[in-house]
Prior knowledge:
The first copy, chain A, is α+β, with helices and mostly antiparallel strands.
Amino acid sequence: MSDGPPGAFADGIGLTITDVEPGYSRGTLSVTEDLLNPNDVLHGAVTYAMADTGMGAALQPSLEDGQSCATVEIKMSYMEPVRDGDLVCETTVTRRGGSVAHLESAVRQGGTLVARATGTFSIFTP
Amino acid sequence: MSDGPPGAFADGIGLTITDVEPGYSRGTLSVTEDLLNPNDVLHGAVTYAMADTGMGAALQPSLEDGQSCATVEIKMSYMEPVRDGDLVCETTVTRRGGSVAHLESAVRQGGTLVARATGTFSIFTP
Amino acid sequence: MSDGPPGAFADGIGLTITDVEPGYSRGTLSVTEDLLNPNDVLHGAVTYAMADTGMGAALQPSLEDGQSCATVEIKMSYMEPVRDGDLVCETTVTRRGGSVAHLESAVRQGGTLVARATGTFSIFTP
Amino acid sequence: MSDGPPGAFADGIGLTITDVEPGYSRGTLSVTEDLLNPNDVLHGAVTYAMADTGMGAALQPSLEDGQSCATVEIKMSYMEPVRDGDLVCETTVTRRGGSVAHLESAVRQGGTLVARATGTFSIFTP
């Protein structure tokens, strides 16, 4: 994931992973009309997609050959509605165990925290 | 939301709300290639979108004139990877308070539970 | 855990695991004054302890010799305040994977749902 | 809560709120044998109690006369097992709305993050 495109769904919503370092990723997205909900607010699943994709990207550099990872669960909290403009999602690995990793994402618009996620990923070794 | 289309983003991923009753909603979605992640698995944000949209739909009938609602937080857990086929998301309101509601969603493929969400919504009275 | 006492902390709060079957557990607790918070409401951590302990108990029968388990994360939602009386916590394993399990708990007083938890446990094989 | 004892349950587990500032609290606890689970590890509900109580304490200074608050939901993730020693829980209010607040807690032992919580509280105005 860190070496390639983020996949069809992430591409479709305009999500770009701009930086990946071990234990860290940064992604950006510009809000467009096709990402809104019926209240003309950014659909929460778009913000969530930034976190989920960012978590996979941040974890990827720590995977050994043949290992893969998958989302076990993510909780996302919404602090501010978003109607337009650009979002930045920064993700960090807070704990990398052998088969489980903990991650956190913060989605910001300008300097304002708009959403926060904590998640768990499984790491599979063949 | 219960009286109209689910919005641009939900439309774009092919999500349809098929049933809305007070405290309940049901939505469906067919997995297509543009919804996959780089591992050819359905992106977790799509399943999440079913829950988030379904929660809004289930809560909507209980809103009085002028009231609106918004997602405070949702946690989603993934039990099974999804690669193709159809998904059904059923959502129930487990507690409707004056300004806060608790909701739960189950996303199933056939009879198999593939994801589970619990969430909190705010209810705003002008 | 299913074969012995629930441990010092669970004992101290009066939590009893009354039933354990594969993928299921049931625990009970009587609210006493020393379990209250400053608002004379049952401290949320007591309800949480019922879920956490109940999840361990429900998972235990599926562990093979030498395997152990630990809580990765739990989210608990509170529907109703509790001031006195008896509580029952029922827990089910919703997905048992090789190294990760998903679990859910419902804490009820009489017929009323007072709290709901979803959690993830790690399973360790030596 | 910021002006008085943390309540019977918090007292019973030895939890002390050492600092409260608007939007912030700090609590400490020494691990004792009666707080352990059957694996001789600190019961997760004790760590959770630090977060839940700390969240109430951090929110308290922002309440106006007559307002009260209650936990809507908390998710806690466990990074490291704890067997003995002292714990410090720091909590911050990440968003204070009119009727809902978002909060985060970090529980550390020495410099190590052992648990992380995000939560939602309701604010009631009579």
